[in-house]
Write a structure and sequence with these properties.
The complex is a heterodimer of chains A (263) and B (493). Chain A is built from 7 helices and 10 strands. In chain A, 51% of the residues are buried. The longest helix of chain A has 18 residues. With 263 residues, chain A is an alpha/beta fold. In chain A, the strands form 3 sheets. A 5-stranded parallel sheet of chain A has the order 7-6-8-9-10, sandwiched between helices. In chain A, helix 6 links the parallel strand 9 and strand 10. Chain A has 2 domains: 72 residues, Alpha-Beta Plaits; 128 residues, Rossmann fold, CATH 3.40.50. Chain B is α+β, with helices and mostly antiparallel strands and 493 residues long. Chain B contains 15 helices and 14 strands. In chain B, strand 2 and strand 3 form a beta hairpin. Chain B starts with a strand and ends with a helix. Classes of the chains: A alpha/beta (263), B alpha+beta (493). At the A-B interface, helix 1, strand 6, helix 4 and helix 5 of A face helix 3, helix 4, helix 7 and helix 8 of B. Bound molecules: iron/sulfur cluster (2 copies).
């Protein structure tokens, strides 16, 4: 009897909360929330200023003096979204980018410059065809755990990645995609390689978070923690430190399209 | 907090440390070295709220291990061997901790000066073998089944019973401590915070307190309150996550998913305060980087009250389930004696009778004015750790309200010169959601950081997991593990 009462109480609690899952897909970040930097048309002062370049903790920014304008170059694959450059920049050349649609399939496209238009990732629309809308991912964590927690959060009732057919699996043998977080320090080189080799073709590798893309703040040290590239071939890059769950969901949907194109 | 520096001979350490640990309020903070020429033993006095660093010169590459008389030093000695090449003689189980087989024996990353010839041979590692009729091994990891940090567990079992668990860490050793000596102090906070970002607020605070103590300056009271706010928000979010994880491992999915939703509400508090779900890059030496708007402070307060109400009913449904309680009781027990011997901290310590909470003893945040009220019990099982966590969670949500009620006005950021004062020792001791976190910083004659040592609470507590699962069912391992909430990245650095 007590058991029944408890179950009824639990069920009515859950029902009282209604549907908490967000119906929007990868909307912009809310006002006041920090994303990656982006560039505007406002002219940069040039090398006399270069305050952002000096402040950036990961040396992701370069200011190059060109004939007429100064070119600002930011490698988002090195950026930890600390927000220093956007708050320092006196000309609002560097501003906060609220977009969560930030993943790129080419490493170079993470490099943004005032002299070049950014590469738009465009819209995603699930997989290809009714039988290609699922994706089993294997996660290999080699970082500080915040990226992992955000992948975990992507599966919570609010973001709910399973509604798009994404599931996290416990073996590389039945995974379509390998998600790597963290800078892959030396002791993880071999385990990561082994995991990749155990996967069936066609397989995708997603470098999730700035560490996995470039090593981030850890690169070029004695632990050779320079990211996933060089250990396994990366197909998709998700910048951020850590990327927001919406950015992760967007990336996973891009990955489904890549998978559909390959198979 | 300033640190006294005392010279003590290597051989005198054992007796002095034993006496200190028997004294009321005596604690071992950490054992490390600066450059491989000495051992540094950081000892704490929780009654007086002070710290001193015992420096002991080591001639050559070896010294006598303390581990047989002071068990909690066993882990530090393994790490010091890897990073500085100082080998502890008669260590009961000397194994590499952070540097694995892919590293050659001549890689000694933090040692300066003459390096002991290690040759090009790669490092070796041997697991403890448990022998006997019917004993078998279950190896797990380094890559785990779910979304978890990497580590290797080797279970030696008889039937369904775990006889021994060997825990091997170091897979995410990224070289954080060395990197922290290579950058200017203004950029160091980004690295310190990236060590273990699920404790980012605590790491940022420990770093800030250590740097401020080197400058000999304290932040404004308003900054202290805002810092306590970040710390309590982090504690709330992570305690909710851990309780949800425990419910999930029992198979109580309604509670697990409710906790996952509520954790989102807790992260939203941090996002309102700092612009980031993990409150990244907000606390800095001198205070906090920006003062939050009155509007967001008000929102945090109302949302925290709502979260508290919501949690009360979920926790009540969790604990009123007899099956769930039965799964947690008498499982994964750590006795008070072993908890004291291994210097357990945080929830793990407080659930085994150790009434220690750094918020009560060492200045960080505004805890001199706020009473955190230490929750503790003596049972030492999974259930005890759950109960302590629940009490702390409730108290943290009250604290959030008190902080916002009493938040003093004034500035929230001080600036410092570009150069750090020379030859100083600074320390930051913070009660992170996992327990006592220490950042210990030394500057040299040029005002550069010559050594940056971090002690995550998990360094103390990993051993507790190995103790707790002994003679328990293999199937209860995940539950035991979750109840300790251990960090791999904070340990590995
Ligand atoms: S936001 Fe990114 S690019 Fe800008 S300073 Fe920080 S790390 Fe550098
Ligand atoms: S990218 Fe940032 S959040 Fe992700 S593992 Fe690296 S430091 Fe952690």
């Amino acid at each position: 009897m007590i058991y029944e009462v408890n179950v009824i109480r639990l069920l009515s609690y859950l029902v009282s909360k209604g549907v908490v899952t967000s119906s929007q897909l990868s909307p912009p970040l809310q006002e006041g929330v920090r994303g990656l930097p982006s560039l505007t048309n406002s002219d940069c002062i040039g090398i006399e200023c270069a305050q952002c370049e000096q402040a950036c903790p990961t040396s992701a920014i370069q200011i190059e003096q060109q004939a007429e304008h100064a070119n600002v170059r930011i490698d988002l694959g090195n950026c930890i979204a600390c927000g220093l450059c956007t708050s320092i920049c006196p000309t609002a050349t560097i501003v906060n980018n609220p977009s969560t649609r930030t993943a790129q399939s080419e490493r170079e496209h993470l490099i943004i410059q005032t002299s070049l238009p950014p590469v738009n990732t465009g819209a995603v629309s699930g997989g290809g065809g009714i039988f290609r809308r699922s994706m089993a991912v294997r996660v290999v964590s080699t970082g500080c755990s915040a990226c992992d927690l955000e992948i975990g959060a992507s599966g919570n009732p609010i973001f709910d990645m399973e509604r798009f057919g994404v599931s996290v699996v416990a073996s590389p043998r039945f995974a379509d995609a390998l998600v790597v977080t963290g800078p892959v320090p030396k002791a993880m080189h071999e385990p990561l390689r082994t995991c990749y080799e155990a996967m069936a073709d066609p397989r995708l590798v997603i470098a999730l978070g700035t560490c996995a893309i470039s090593g981030g703040v850890h690169k070029n040290g004695y632990t050779e923690a320079n990211g996933a590239n060089g250990i396994v071939p990366v197909d998709l890059y998700v910048p951020g430190c850590p990327p927001h769950p919406w950015s992760i969901l967007f990336a996973l949907q891009m990955a489904m399209q890549l998978k559909a194109r390959r198979s | 907090m300033k640190v006294d520096s005392v010279e003590i001979s290597v051989d005198a350490r054992a007796n002095k440390l034993r006496a200190l640990l028997n004294d009321d309020g005596g604690r071992l903070g950490l054992i490390t070295s600066i450059d491989g020429q000495q051992l540094v033993t950081l000892v704490l006095n929780t009654t007086a709220g002070t710290a001193s660093a015992w420096t002991s010169r080591v001639d050559g590459d070896t010294y006598h291990s303390l581990s047989t008389v002071i068990p909690q030093s066993h882990w530090y000695e393994r790490t010091v061997w890897d990073l500085f090449g100082l080998k502890p003689k008669s260590h009961p189980r000397l194994k590499h901790n952070l540097l694995h087989e892919p590293y050659s024996a001549s890689v000694i990353p933090l040692r300066t000066g003459a390096i002991a010839p290690g040759g090009d041979n790669h490092r070796q590692y041997h697991h403890l073998e448990v022998k006997g009729d019917g004993v078998y091994e279950i190896p797990v990891g380094p890559i785990h089944a779910g979304i978890i940090e990497p580590g290797h567990f080797r279970f030696s079992c008889l039937g369904e019973i775990i006889l021994n668990l060997e825990i091997r860490l170091g897979y995410v050793h990224r070289g954080i401590e060395k990197r922290l000596t290579e950058v200017s102090w203004r950029k160091a906070r980004f690295i310190a915070e990236s060590a273990a970002s699920d404790s980012g607020a605590a790491y940022a605070l420990a770093h800030a307190v250590a740097i401020e103590s080197i400058f000999g300056v304290e932040p404004s009271l308003r900054a202290d309150y805002l810092r306590s706010l970040t710390l309590e928000i982090e504690r709330v979010a992570m305690h909710i996550a851990d309780l949800g994880g425990i419910a999930g491992d029992i198979g109580f999915l309604a509670i697990a998913s409710s906790m996952a939703r509520l954790r989102g509400d807790a992260l939203a508090l941090g996002e309102l305060l700092t612009g980031s779900r993990f409150q990244r890059f907000f606390v800095c030496p001198g205070g906090v980087v920006h003062d939050p708007s009155p509007k967001s402070l008000l929102q945090i307060r109302t949302r925290a009250i709502k979260l508290r109400k919501d949690l009360v009913s979920v926790i009540d449904m969790f604990l009123s389930n007899q099956v769930a309680c039965d799964r947690m009781q008498r499982v994964g027990r750590v006795s008070n004696k072993l908890a004291a011997d291994f210097g357990l901290v945080g929830v793990a310590g407080r659930a085994s009778g150790i009434k220690y909470d750094a918020r009560m003893h060492f200045h960080h945040g505004a805890y001199l004015e706020l009473n955190p009220k230490v929750a503790w019990t003596e049972q030492g099982d999974v259930f005890a750790r759950v109960r302590v966590r629940i009490d702390e969670l409730a108290r943290s949500l009250e604290l959030i309200d008190e902080i916002l009620e009493r938040l003093p006005s004034g500035s929230s950021l001080l600036d410092f010169p570009d150069r750090l004062p020379s030859n100083q020792i600074g320390v930051g001791i913070v009660e992170a959601h996992r327990g006592e976190l220490i950042h210990l910083v030394f500057t040299n004659a040029e005002g550069h950081v010559s050594r940056y040592a971090i002690k995550d609470p998990s360094v103390n507590n990993w051993t507790a997991l190995a103790i707790a699962v002994r003679n328990n069912l293999v199937a209860d391992f995940p539950l035991c593990n979750k109840s300790f909430s251990l960090s791999y990245s904070g340990h590995d650095l």
